[in-house]
Design goal:
The chain is an alpha+beta fold and 187 residues long. 42% of the residues lie in helices and 24% in strands. The strands form two sheets. A five-stranded mixed beta sheet has the order 2-4-5-7-6. A two-stranded antiparallel sheet has the order 1-3. The longest helix is centred in the N-terminal third of the chain and has 34 residues. The termini are far apart.
Length: 187
Amino acid sequence: MSAVSASQESAEPVLAEVDRTFVVAIPLLALTVVTGLPAMAGTWALIGAIRALPKLVRRTLPMSVALEIRADHDAWVGIAANDLTRICANLVFNANDAITGKGTIAVRVTRDDARVVIDVQDDGAGMPGDVLSHLFEPFFTTKPVGRGTGLGLATARILVERAAGTIEVQSDVGHGTRFTIRLPVIA
């Protein structure tokens, strides 16, 4: 074995640890930034954020998973469009992880008096109560090591609540999950 090969072999565990740290540190930094900054002032059109979703997520979904988007109601809301798109994309990615084989992820926007309602629903595996009770806690994840940081839903909750909204989840093991985001209409 040459000196270069020995050096590369001894560096591999260090590089692997650097990669693992990076996977955890970047989302943690993002969560710190989200919780440490004031909410962005202004209003954003909802429909553009929802319509941007297919382009963002379609390449990551297998052909066996249908993505249905129905966004007939536009409204001005107090959450930045890119944040709303990121939240919905995270919910779609999580829904995809819950589906084995063929399935459907539906994103629907409706209006309920002075609130807009965004439902992201899947027909995947569903989650038991012990998972649901921890779902929005930072660093809680059901994904294998290296696949999830447990910060997506925690960040989503912070951003939605900053906009005076709510995010809720309903799940039935074996029948799927539905996340419901309610945001007040600004204008």
